[in-house]
Amino acid sequence: MIEQQIKQELREWSRHTLESPSPFFNNLPACPYAKKAWDEDKIGFVFKTEDDNLSLYQTIAGFDDQFDVVMVIDLSYRKDPEEFEDFLHDLNEAISDGILVQQDMWVMGFHPDDDPDDLIDDGSFSPLVDQKYAIIFVQRLKALHERSEALKPLGYYDRSFEAFENTGLYAHRENLYRRLKNGDETS
Residue ranges of the domains in the chain? Predict the structure, then answer.
């Protein structure tokens, strides 16, 4: 039952927060690809209930492009947001090094104790479930990078990039994409 409620909550949150035009993104949605992915049933879900990362590693290693993104709903998440982010950073490095077989993968996350991102969340969304959970988004690095690049000429980053706190995350993703494409981090 909680799994269906979380899926419904995430669908409603996406409609409310990610799919609406935003002045921060040149009147494009915060995630211009979200609505299409939901409409085409290209979002998968894995529920992680154990304190280990086996289901996450299996999701990455077994990613088969049935979905554009798989949300690993982590019900036993690391309680410290910084530890959570450090884990994801290190996991992206391990993926890039071929530790989990597939190198064309990228993970990023949402921790329930993160500070709100003012660019995409105005605080007006009312959650549907009381249980806290983290989300780890698993997707193809190449597809994510190319879709991100396609938004640049549309002015998507013009107002938001300098205010975007994750510019380091963006640079890290870009470096790993270059490593995937070129064998090193050169352009």
Answer: 2-182
| Dist CA 146 CA 141 (whole Å) | 9
Q: What angle do CA 126, 81, 49 make, to 5 degrees?
A: 75
Lowest mean pLDDT among 114-118, 124-128, 142-146: 114-118
Contact (CB, 8 A) for 122 and 13: no
Q: Is the pTM of this model over 0.85?
A: yes
* Phi and psi torsions of 71, nearest 5°: -95, 115
Q: Is the pLDDT of residue 166 over 60?
A: no
The per-residue DSSP string of 76-117 comes to: T--SSHHHHHHHHHHHHHHHHTTTTS--S-EEEEE-TTSPP-
Q: How far is the C-alpha of 20 from the C-alpha of 139, rounded, in Å?
A: 22
Q: Which amino acid is at 86?
A: D
